[in-house]
Amino acid sequence: MDLITLRAGDAAIELAPEAGGAVTRYWHARGPTTREWLRPTPAGALRAGRPDRAAAFPLVPYSNRIRAGRFSFRGRAVVEPLNRPPGRHAIHGHGWQARWHPTDVRTAEARLEYRHPAGAWPWAYHAIQRFTLAPARLTVELSLTNQSAAPMPAGIGWHPYFPRTRRATISADVRAMWLTDEEQLPTELVAPPARPFGRGRDNCFVGWSRRATIDWPELGARLVMRAEAPLDYLVVFTPARRGFFCVEPVSHVTDAFNLAEAGRDDSGTLVLEPGETLRTAVVLTPEV
Question: If you average pLDDT over every residue of the chain, what do you get?
Fold first, then answer.
């Protein structure tokens, strides 16, 4: 599998276009010290068909779960493949399991593209990721263009995995939180708890400021994540007894298309007209 490595000063990032356009590693190396800002991809995971074990991957044309892979949009029934067996729901869209193509690679920049033909998802679309690395910053630009002749429901986001240490913390201002059932599908919008980002969490938060801070006190390290509109929702996944956690800026709540069809106007569901493009960006700024 061909990997792309970008470098800027002490910073480096590794990309796997063939494996979901994923980031496999993002780190700083200063003398004998190497700081991993994202969870490094385990050896062999991508070759084994496990892009969910990468350091980060794109979310297009929707994020998180669609209940049973089924929804209706403007009278049209859509049935998505259940793409992570034995899970009973479609999850994370298509891009994370697809081959992306590098179309512009430089020392510290790379552009990856993915074209999805109409099929079970009855709209053709074109997605682009552009990575720009600086010594103290990583910028990930994302775009999604509807290339079909009909309006398309749409979502976009980015799914990074961060290394967990015993004292690691997540900080972000949020206004509300979706409670979920045993399958992590939304049930009720409530005020966030006093400790919204504790262990064992898998929830979508609403009204965040598009700024989150991750601290690793025992390492003396911090990372600030900023996102652009329309990434107005934040999914936080903090599984117990695992060596990682996720802080995912996304454009809509979990199962948004079904919530919108049921009459909710706060799901974050977007509609792209033919030829219309949705653009956003996520910026990671490490501090040591």
Answer: 96
